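Database export, one record per block. Field names are fixed; values are copied verbatim from the stored entry.
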Amino acid sequence: MRGGYDGAVLSQKGLPCPNIFTGAHNFHSIYEYLPVPSLEAASAVVVDVIRITAERAAR
């Protein structure tokens, strides 16, 4: 996805900004929300990816 979020502008200027997946609901409405457990789960996945990448780089 290269549009629709603030990171798209920064990515165009050379600073890669990936979308962090979440379990949001009611996108682009006044009722859009993100449950905290969904954000926590997404954060845990990101931490695992970083850990695995660091372990592989250390080999």
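Remark 1: Residues 44 and 50 are 10 Å apart (CA to CA).
Remark 2: The chain has a mean pLDDT of 86.
End of record.
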